[in-house]
Amino acid sequence: MKIDAEITFRKLEIFMEFMEKGNIARTAEALGISGVSVHRALHTLEEGVRCPLFIHKGRNLVPLESAFTLLEHSKEVVALMARGIDETRQAAGVGQGRLRIGTLYSLTLETVPKLIMGMKLRRPELEMDLTMGSNQVLLNMLEDGVLDAILISISEGEVDRSRLEVLPMFRDDIFLAAPASFPLDTSHPADLREFHAEKFVSLAEGFATYAGFQEAFNVAGFEPEIVTRVNDIFSMVSMVQAGVGLTLMPGRMKKVYENSVQLLRLAEQYQMKQTIAIVFARNRELDPNLLALAAEGRMYARTFIDTPNAPP
Predict the structure, then answer these.
(1) CA–centroid distance for 212 within its chain
(2) Rg over CA atoms, the chain
């Protein structure tokens, strides 16, 4: 026998509440709905079951034996479905007590700690796992379901916005970086053509800053001599500090290394910005943990609206 469309979980919940309260008014009050809604739910449920569940005594509905039989099975089926939904969400990694976040290395200096502190205030019971990697590695991990959300630099065409939700937080300039001892002329922006004889260090392919590095030197019209490529921005900056070579890096690194690394704004033809954003799957946009992360990201983004010149 097919189950009638009039029999829904919502109606069963109203029915169970009525059987406990024994009164339409008290049931409506407990559920925060109108008495008319309670009466309609009970009436249509009775039609769906295709047998009487109640009799009228004056203005009261009195349950029949059939109602108590339905009550027993309703409790079982609603509890079973609630457990099934919970296990389904667990299998999908949705709304659980753990959030797996991927981030660029450079964002661990300030952005990620602030987001985590805000998240702990919003959802103190939530545990957060942090994975660091390149733009491409993090996107792949998000696609494979290994991560719940990532903080990366986005560019046109790199992110499929039909499947991924993108929440921009701030934009960051790219600078020429040199060791403190390097004779850098800071009286004018850096024209990369003046540095064609210098050695450079770079991030490996797949990192957002690497793409900008390649683009800038394409504009300059020469291929720089790259001494070494590294897999995280902190190693790259250490190489610059040690005098191994120059590099291009985002301004958000400035605060930590301002005493040992010089940053010089690029000349207009080389200038570029990175847009840093939170990215997660669009089909998980109602996940409570991701909603909290998105809310915190918007709060963080407001600091750059309210104080436009604030460093990232």
Answers:
(1) 24
(2) 30
Whether 312 and 111 have beta carbons less than 8 Å apart is answered as yes
Q: Which of 208, 216, 223, 214 is nearest to 274 (CA)?
A: 208
Hey, what long-range contacts does 110-117 have (CB within 8 A, 24 or more apart)?
A: 110/252, 110/255, 110/312, 111/151, 111/169, 111/252, 111/276, 111/300, 111/312, 112/151, 114/300, 115/151, 115/293, 115/296, 115/297, 115/300
Distance CA 256, CA 234 (A): 11
Per-residue DSSP letters for 274-302?
A: EEEEEEEEGGGTT-HHHHHHHHHHHHHHH
Dihedral (Cα; 36, 37, 38, 41), 10-degree rounding: 120
Three-state DSSP string of 199-224: EEEEECCCCHHHHHHHHHHHHHCCCC
State which amino acid sits at residue 182: F
311, pLDDT greater than 50: no
Query: With 60 as the cut, is the pLDDT of residue 295 above it?
Result: yes
Please list, residue by residue across 162-187, b when 16 or more beta carbons sit within 10 angstroms of its beta carbon and e when fewer do: eebbebebbebbbbbbbbeeeebeee
Residues 6+ away with beta carbon under 8 Å from 157: none
The Cα 225–Cα 126 span in angstroms is 47
Q: Are 141 and 114 in contact (CB under 8 A)?
A: no
pTM for the structure as a whole: 0.67
Average predicted confidence (pLDDT) for the chain: 89
Map residue 35 onto helix, strand or coil: helix
